[in-house]
What does this fold into?
Amino acid sequence: MPEAAPQQSSIIETFRAIEAELTAAGAPFETTEVEIDGHRVLTYRNAGATFHESVADLATRFADNVLTVDDETRTYADIFARAARFAGALRERYGIAVGDRVGVMMANQSSYLVALLAITRIGAVAVLYNSRSSATEIAAAFEDVPSTVVIADPPRIELLRTVDHAATLVSTDRIDAELPTVDSLIAETDTDGPVVEAPADAPCLILFTSGTSGRAKGVQLTHRNLVNVVLNMRFVVECNLRIAAHRYGIAVDDIRALMPPTSALLIFPLFHVSGLAGLISALNSGGRVATMRRWDPAVAVRLIHEHKLTLMSGPPMTVDELLKQPDASTLLASLVNVTPGGQATPPNLTAHISDTVPGAQRSNGWGMTETAGSVCTAGGAVLADFPNTVGPVSPTMRVRVTDAAGQEVPAGTLGELELSGGLVMAGYIDSDGSLTDDHRPWLSTGDLGYVDEHGLIYLVDRSKDIVICAGENIACSEVEAALMVGDAFTEVAAFGVPDERLGEKLVVAVTVDGDRTLDADDVRDLARETLPPHKIPAEVRFDMSPLPRNATGKLVKRELRARYLAQSTATAD
It folds into this structure.
C-alpha cells in the first residue's frame, strides 16, 4: 500500500492526539472495559445505563426546539411528553412490562419517534419491523420475533391483517372505530409511563438483516450498544471540531458557536441503522428531522430549503436525484454534510456533490446492523487527505484483519475484517428464541479490506452474496429460491453488477426448462408472487447457459458476473 505523505501523517497525528485527550481518564469520552459473556469489551465509562437515560434530558435542554417536521411540526417537549403518556398507555391498557416486545412498523413520521421513546422508557424492547416487507417476509419475521403489540400506519395495518400473528394492533391514524390509535390512547391515559431502569446489557432494540440465506435475521441490540452509538456520534463531532480548530488556529468554542444544530432529512427508514443514525445525530445537537413517507426529490429540495436542513444521508441514487433538481445549488445551500450511504459511492457522485453544494462536506463510514450502525467514520480533514478510507475505528471498538485460516494478518494486508467492542450486538435471534453466541470475542463481518499503518480502515469487497441496490440489501439466494419454486427453470443465478444510478442492479440469469417460452416480464411476474418490489430483477438474461459451476457443482458467481460484463462491453462496442 502507498505510504502517506508528510501532510497526511500530520493530520493523523493530530487526530490521534485529540482522540487520546478525549478518551483519557477523567475525560468526557473515557473508555473502560467490562465483561460480557466472559469476554472483555470496550465501552464508555460515562455512558448511561439505558438508551432512555442517554436522551431523556433533551426534552428540557431543547424543549422549544422543533424536533419533527412531517404533516405537522412538533417540538422536543411535545414529542417527549407524548411518548411518556403513550408509555403509560402501553403499561395500563396492554400490560407491557420490562423485556416485553413491542413492534413498530410504519413509514418515517413523528409517531415513529413517539413509539420508540415510549417503548424504551418503560424497559420494553422495540422491534423495528421492515415496513417495506411483503406479507411473506412479515410472516417470517413474526414467526421468529413475535411482538405483544404492534404500532403501525394504515398501509401496514392492512398488510398485517393478512398475516397470521397474535399481536394486538395500534394504528397511527384512524381506520375504523374499533382500532385504537396513538392519539386516542394518549388522550385516554391519565398518567405517564414510569422510567424503568434496565441493565446495560438488557435488550433495547431488535432490527432485521436481509440474511444471506434469504430469511431476515433478528439482531438483538442492547442498551449498552445504543448508548455507545449516542456517545460515538458526540465523540466524532467533538473530534472534528478540535481538528478544525487546530488546523485553522481558531478556538474550539468559537467554531462550536458557528455550527448550526444538525438537522436531518431522513431518507433511510428508521428500521434501518442509517435512519437511526440520522435521528440520533439530530437529537444530540437539538436539531430537527424532516420525514418523507415516500421519496420525491422535488419535495426533498423544498424541505431542505424551507427548514434549513444541514444533513442529508441516503443511497447514492437519491443523492444524485436530489443534486439534479432545478436550482439545486441555491436551494441546498444550507447542507453542511451530504453522506451517500448503504453502498459504495460512485466517483462521479463525489464530484457532483462538490460542484453542486461546495459548502457541504462528504462523509464516509462503515457499519452494519450487527454493530448498531457505524463502527468508523471519516470526514473533514481526514477524508480530504485519505479519500478512500472509511475512517478510524470508534474508541470503543477494536478491528483486526484475518486470512482464510482465521489468522490475524499485518497492516496493509487484505483479509476479512473482524470487530469487537461495545457496539457489537448481543446476538442473532434463532427461530427458537435463543441468542447466538458465536460472535464473541470477534464478529466476522464478511467484508474484505485492510487496515493501514495509521489504523485507517479500507473496504475492498464483500464476501457475502448480497446485492446492495439503492441502499437496500437483497439476498441473491432469496431471489433464486423464489424463481425456483415452480418448474419453469432448471437453474437460476442472481447477482449484482455496477450501476451508476443504483450503485448495483440485480440481474438474474436463467435456464428455461424444456420447450417453454418465457420473456423477461414473465420472470418478473413470477418473482412478484413472493418478493417485494425492490427485489424484482432489473434485468433477466436467457443467453448465459450453461451457468458456470465449480467441481462440486456450486455456481461461480465471480465468473458469471465477468461473463455478463464482457458481453455488455461487446454489445456496447
In short: Residues 57-63+75-194 form a domain with the Rossmann fold fold (CATH 3.40.50.980). The two ends are 34 Å apart (CA to CA). The longest helix spans residues 223-248. The chain is about 35% helix and 25% strand.
